[in-house]
Amino acid sequence: MRRITNDQAKRFALAAQGFNDGRPSGRIDRRHFRKVLDRVRLIQIDSVNYFSRAHFMPFFSRLGPYNRDRLDDWLWRSGEVFEYWGHEASLLPVDHHRLFRWQMEGDVHWKAMERLKEKAPDYIEEVYSQVVEGGPIQTADLEDTGKRPGRSMWNWNTGKLALEVLFMQGRVTTAERPRNFVRLYDIPERVLPRSALEAPTPEKDVAQSELLLEAVKAMGVATAEDIGDYYRIRMPATRPLVAKLAETGQIIEVEVEGWDKPGYLHPDAALPRKKRGTALLSPFDNLVWCRPRIERIWDFHYRIEIYVPEAKRVYGYYVLPFLLDGELVARVDLKSDRQMSTLRVKGAFAEPGVDRAHVGAALAEEVRTIANWLEMDEVAVDNNGDLSAELRKRV
């Protein structure tokens, strides 16, 4: 069995995610956006806008400053990308639509949706008819939005639940998300290209195998658990499919230094001569969303603390890891104070053993760059964290 070092694992992972390419120096356009999506295969989205919309950041981390309106125009209006449940709510290449039909044809997973399917199927069909007749629409446009069921499902009303059932089933899709990020629903026939909708539907295990192979390409090297997590394919299905991919030579089983489980590598995976990549990473970035994996590779313990009570937070509300020359060296809690046009660094923390002066200088440059990109006039650094004084001095 092939053996690789932990340093090689880092290089495989960074190259697979596009960090070895470096940021372009010229005008950034759709070609660059396509290249990022081709590397990472899906982009997680999230409604939290405390610092920046989650889907903007993976592109910034790999490309540097770009026009956000230009990206949104490509994502929502080009017909090349669609929204579905990939790794949570995600944006995916439209040619992957066929690979998620097994999920569209299955259970909707959430109990509130299943109850609605059982108790009010006629209401769901009425909602579908309204989308067919009047789409694109948002929940507020429904003739009867229904009652809110309490605290479950983010306190969604019945109309929202019905739309989400239809979305999960693939009968409606996202036409667009305006500035307020509210989803506008429409039928796929009016949003997605015919070529995507008419592509043959593979069997469930074939589709899942293709997705797992895509995950290995995007991750560089990973365990079976890591691979399944990329598209949220459950382990009882993932294990035998990964084993079959290895048996047929589509992926290579490897022994990785420090790992207690086998790793898997794509035969075409690139191994650069050195680690590269300097960027602030969103909590929802593909490189870091599998927390056990980044702890295994980078010895970087990371948890998002948005849902942790403030008094119990260790680092802050919206904390971004800082990647410097291929190493995770720090983390910063960032907030965009749009009213004051100020990017606020609520906390800055160095990892043990790093050169704080070097990290502080590089982080200051990245923070200034991201503030300009977000059209913030000022950067303010709070006195919180062992890197804050160094960062404040430099910004």
Structural notes for this entry:
- It is a single chain.
- This protein has helices at residues 6-16, 30-40, 56-63, 68-77, 101-104, 111-119, 121-134, 158-168, 194-198, 204-219, 224-230, 235-247, 291-298, 356-373, 388-394, and strands spanning 2-4, 43-44, 81-86, 88-93, 173-176, 184-186, 221-222, 252-256, 263-265, 279-280, 319-324, 327-337, 342-350, 378-381.
- The chain is of the alpha+beta class.
- The strands form four sheets. The protein has a five-stranded mixed beta sheet.
- A hairpin with a 6-residue loop joins strand 8 (252-256) and strand 9.
- Helix 14 (356-373) crosses helix 15 (388-394).
- The longest helix has 18 residues, at 356-373.
- It is globular, with a radius of gyration of 22 Å.
- The protein starts with a strand and ends with a helix.
In short:
The chain contains 15 helices and 14 strands. It is α+β, with helices and mostly antiparallel strands.
Note poorly predicted spans: 150-154
- Topology, number of strands: 14
N-to-C CA distance = 49 Å
Look at the structure and give the mean pLDDT: 94
Secondary structure category:
alpha+beta
Portion in beta strands: 15-25%
Please give the radius of gyration in angstroms. 22 Å
Envelope shape = globular
Q: What's the tally of helices?
A: 15
